Write a sequence for this structure.
């Protein structure tokens, strides 16, 4: 099955590349260049909304130069491909998906039709492996219709929002390729960032994790950071925690590395996560006048380790209790004990709540003195 999936995915990449080359041979003025696709449920089927470049939208006065150069068109169909085709009839040029940045599935659509959505991503020549995917709450159309505070290309801003959030621990970025890899694994579960609109902008709310391809659990910002930590996706960012003497402390995590091992101990499965991280404490103002003592530093380091452990444990526990495995726990069990994996894989999700969770964090602390003159 995996070999077939990889072959199909390779064919998809090649077809997309050839299709892009063929289409870009046309003049840019002869193409409708899609920047984002939104998919929502309709009583009659599916609604597809396309955000596309409209280079003549604000080509008049110089005052218009910083406003959006995109437009949105929408149409319905019996499935995504049909709805996209119908939407293409509302614009004057051929639709080109070679620069598409974002595919958003509405929450209502994801509840009952995510399998159809993933089938579209796998089979359609409009899909590309590197496109970012997300969930729009309550629907996807409102996400790509957002003005994003007057951005020239709103979809680019939303894409950057997700990517920067992924780097700093506020959101998780998922591509079509990421989604298909998890979807193809019979014991693992997919997840996507959740977007919502607020006035004229989009924000990341957290992460929607699935179980058996149905929405199962919502992870808030802290729990999303825990997910990123366990999956080795957290690059650097600020975390805040309380200490008994120093009060609330904010430190910058410069690097983190998670090592996962699944063990069978006395008939009990244990999911072990060992985190190694480096962080920086910046001492300014009153802190410099009263420098941190060795006792203070040890307390901060211990509190930081406890915070990292708490973030990871909360995320893993919440997913396991809701019969969801976005961490590929079963794969680690397979590497450790193939026989036990084969015994449990058919009912893997029912066994998740019985798995013991052990998270240990070890950190190195660096102090930085910022003495403003």
């Amino acid at each position: 099955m995996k070999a077939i999936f990889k072959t199909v995915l390779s064919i998809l990449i090649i077809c997309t590349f050839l299709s892009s080359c063929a289409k870009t041979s046309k003049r840019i003025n002869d193409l409708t260049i899609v920047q984002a696709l939104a998919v929502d449920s309709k009583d009659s089927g599916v609604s597809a909304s396309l955000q596309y470049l409209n280079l003549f939208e604000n080509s008049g006065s110089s005052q218009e130069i910083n406003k959006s150069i995109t437009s949105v068109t929408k149409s319905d169909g019996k499935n995504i491909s049909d709805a996209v085709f119908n939407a293409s009839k509302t614009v004057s040029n051929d639709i080109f998906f070679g620069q598409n940045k974002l595919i958003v599935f509405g929450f209502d659509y994801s509840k009952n039709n995510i399998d159809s959505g993933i089938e579209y991503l796998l089979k359609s020549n409009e899909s590309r492996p590197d496109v970012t995917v997300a969930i729009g709450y309550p629907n996807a159309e409102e996400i790509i219709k957002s003005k994003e505070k007057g951005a020239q290309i709103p979809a680019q801003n939303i894409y950057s929002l997700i990517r920067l959030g992924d780097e700093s621990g506020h959101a998780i970025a998922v591509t079509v390729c990421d989604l298909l890899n998890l979807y193809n694994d019979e014991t693992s579960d997919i997840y996507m960032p959740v977007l919502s609109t607020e006035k004229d902008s989009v924000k990341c709310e957290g992460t929607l994790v699935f179980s058996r391809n149905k929405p199962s659990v919502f992870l808030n910002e802290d729990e999303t950071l825990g997910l990123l930590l366990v999956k080795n996706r957290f690059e650097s960012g600020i975390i805040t925690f309380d200490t008994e003497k120093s009060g609330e402390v904010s430190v910058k995590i410069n690097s983190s590395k998670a090592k996962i091992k699944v063990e069978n101990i006395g008939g009990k499965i244990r999911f072990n996560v060992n985190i190694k991280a480096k962080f920086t404490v910046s001492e300014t103002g009153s802190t410099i006048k009263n420098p941190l003592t060795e006792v203070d530093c040890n307390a901060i380091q211990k509190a930081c380790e406890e915070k990292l452990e708490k973030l990871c444990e909360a995320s893993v526990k919440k997913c396991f209790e809701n019969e969801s495995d976005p961490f590929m726990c079963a794969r680690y069990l397979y590497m450790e004990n193939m026989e036990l994996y084969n015994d449990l894989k058919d009912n893997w999700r029912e066994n998740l709540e019985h798995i013991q969770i052990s998270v240990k964090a070890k950190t190195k602390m660096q102090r930085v003195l910022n003495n403003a003159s």
In short: The chain is about 35% helix and 35% strand. Residues 294-321 form the longest helix (28 residues). The radius of gyration is 23 Å. The first strand starts at residue 31 and ends at 42.
